[in-house]
Amino acid sequence: MRKRAPWLKLMMVLTYLFLFAPIIVVMVMSFNTSQYGTLPFVFTTGWYQRLLSGVGLGKATWLSIWFSFLVTLAGSLVGILTSLGLRRLPETWARRFISWLNLAVIIPWLVLGIALLMIFNFVGLGRSYTGMFLGNFVCVLPYVVMLVYPALMALDKNVEYAARTLGASPRRTLVTIVLPSLLPAILTSSLMAFMVCFNNFVIQYYLAPFGIRTLPMEIYNLVRVGYKPDINALATIMILVSVSLVLLVNKLGYGSKKGLF
Amino acid sequence: MTKSRIKTWLLMLPGAGTLLSLVLLPLSLLLLFSLVTGNQISLSGALSFKNYLNIFKQGLFGPLMWKSIRMGLLVTASSILIGYPVAYGLAKVVKPRWRNFLVVMIIIPFFTSQLLLIYSLMVMLQSQGPVMTFLALFGLDPTRSILYSNTAVYLILLYQFLPYMVLSLFSSLVKIDDNVVFAARSMGASRRRVFIDIILPLTAPALLSGIILVFIPVAGSFVESNLAGGTKGMMIGSLIDSNFSVSLNMGRGCALCVLFLLIMSVLTFILQRAIRYLERRRL
User: What is the mean pLDDT of chain A?
Assistant: First the structure.
């Protein structure tokens, strides 16, 4: 259908402008000398030097990276197990289970964070690394199942039957047939889980141990205090990382073709 | 029980355990904790409805909840109005080569920190920032700014949640066979009629999930209004949060959460019914 649809295209251009102009402005401003993000534009890389010389953000960044890595590992493992189990259930049950699991995404994280904080206080865990880990884990799990389960259902079962009739054990079938064909979905869901955990401000804000600040919490404080050009530099780096991860996900075959959602 | 049954249960155990102990149990215990007064959570004391009485006596809950619902509906409605044309354009009008690139662009916000999105829009809106400098060309005072107002909060929320609606609608629109639309058009249906009688019913489930993905988080947001709302920016989320971060009254905070969840469930149910009605209009 090759229509011109000029007003529709105009609407799209305006929408993309709305979505990306702020990001581009922040990127440009990160190279600007002015303290307050105002014109005229004078080129500098000073803000990056200041950022990299470490104003305390380095520590929080490493904490967030390590922490998200562990959560992703656990989330992917449990997510894969759950998807394998769901496949063995009737599809209506599986769908129902997934929609219950999605509660962790649909309910505002403010409420979930508070509910988790209360129960952790109640059992004596309080604000702790364990609590923060569990809280982020439960937010990440639905994303993994949401991506891995449909990929698992789309596999041709005959290939597995063939392997089984040719004498492969169930474990061998899983390792040599099922998991390799799920690899794109598993990688995509791990990347997604990592980013969701890395950026999950609200849950970390409620569950992080006292005195410990993850990167999103540091950014929150910086933004609340006011405009600081090093945030521009940090934002530029983080957005570039996000863009490369999105491109990677797209290379894995997700995105417009299979639909991430 | 057969061996394969046991295996299924074993595979489901970690996921189901997580769902039970970290989602369903904490949410139902909120109800219990909301009956405990004060900041110390112990169930030895007497349970009472004091928290709820205090909330209604204080009188902040009603107006703030109403404000959050209004904000949620406004952002959702705007994202539907913008989302349909954009998703339709992505699914049906742009060339396939461009389509992939443009959809990937829309996904980027999912992989970016929510706080950085908020921050970058705040930079745009600040006084003497790009937007105000541009508006100054039309004679507005560039040192004034709409930052720290409800308009700023609205724009930031729309900015954050519009991609959810676009992606949700896109994934459904892209599956509609072009020939269905062709057939309707060639038999004389107007564009409006095609939209109401074909596109809307076929995309109703996606519209519903888009609405849920936008409306509920927006109504429960508090970071945006804390950062960019200024003094009058308070929403129900900020009120709930303040019971934990400022005034330390956990029992009352839990009671607020319960009321919030209750009202949101009722509203979601109504929205669901409304969308089902749209779906049934399919000819």
Answer: 86
